[in-house]
Amino acid sequence: MANYKTYKPELRKNFNYSCGYCQTREPEIGGSKNSFQIDHYKPKSKFPDLINNYENLIYACRACNGYKSDYWPSSIWDNLLKKIILNPRVEDFEKHIDKSNFAWYGITFRGKWNISTLRLASETQISIRKDRARIEKLISKFEKQTLIFQTKIHVEQNNGDLGKVKELKTELKEHMKDIEMLRGKIQGPKD
């Protein structure tokens, strides 16, 4: 069986370059090298036989991994009270946490407990989500403008104004670079 650290590239892809707990994306907090870690859902200190089990590994930001640490329900009361970290591999967070707003809200006691324990409604998390929403809105606006550029290019081609076509294509190319730059702030891998 492979050492769990060798799974990081695969985990990154499987978790869409985002923290399994707070869903913060790599580009939003500086990339994978310093900001993301491999969490053992069932802590290695309590479940050493699962240390290299891929199904027990969660791609997590440094903050969530630190808040979770090696927590595992230690008593029947913890289990009864649902003081259990949600497992992003197998559980539907939306059953426990309303994510429709920037400040996530716990629907169930377990959801509220996870929000509190992992600080999923912290000012930092809210700020990251607001920034992401603003960038997504800008991308959407720019993508609509791309269609306008393409229509103008088509019209000018039909009019035979090759100078205007060249000018519009240059503007469109710059516009597309802006869209990709914005996407890079919130999507995909960042090493």
In words, what does this structure look like?
The chain has 191 residues and is mainly alpha-helical. 50% of the residues lie in helices and 7% in strands. A two-stranded antiparallel sheet has the order 1-2. Strand 3 (97-98) and strand 4 form a beta hairpin. The two termini are 26 Å apart.
Describe the protein's topology:
Blueprint: H1 8-14, H2 32-35, E1 36-40, E2 57-61, H3 62-68, H4 76-80, E3 97-98, E4 105-106, H5 109-118, H6 123-159, H7 162-186
Antiparallel strand pairs: 1-2, 3-4
Helix pairs in contact: 6-7
Protein name: NinG family protein
Domain HNH: 19-69
Pfam families: HNH
Summarize, please:
The chain is mainly alpha-helical and 191 residues long.
Q: In percent terms, what proportion of residues is strand?
A: 5-15%
Largest sheet: 2 strands, antiparallel
Structural class: mainly alpha
Mean pLDDT: 94
**Total domains, how many?**
2
Count every beta strand, where a strand is a DSSP E run of 2 or more residues. 4
- Helix-strand topology string: HHEEHHEEHHH
Binned, the helix content reads 40-55%
Gyration radius from CA atoms, angstroms = 22 Å
Number of helices: 7
Distance between the termini: 26 Å
Q: Order the strands across the largest sheet as they lie in space.
A: 1-2
Shape from CA axes? elongated
Regions with little confidence, pLDDT below 50 for 5+ residues: none
Domain HNH: 19-69
Pfam families: HNH
GO molecular function, one term: nucleic acid binding
Protein name: NinG family protein
Fill in the keyword field for this structure:
191 residues; mainly alpha; two-stranded antiparallel sheet; 4 strands; 50% helix; 7% strand; elongated; HNH; zinc ion binding; NinG family protein
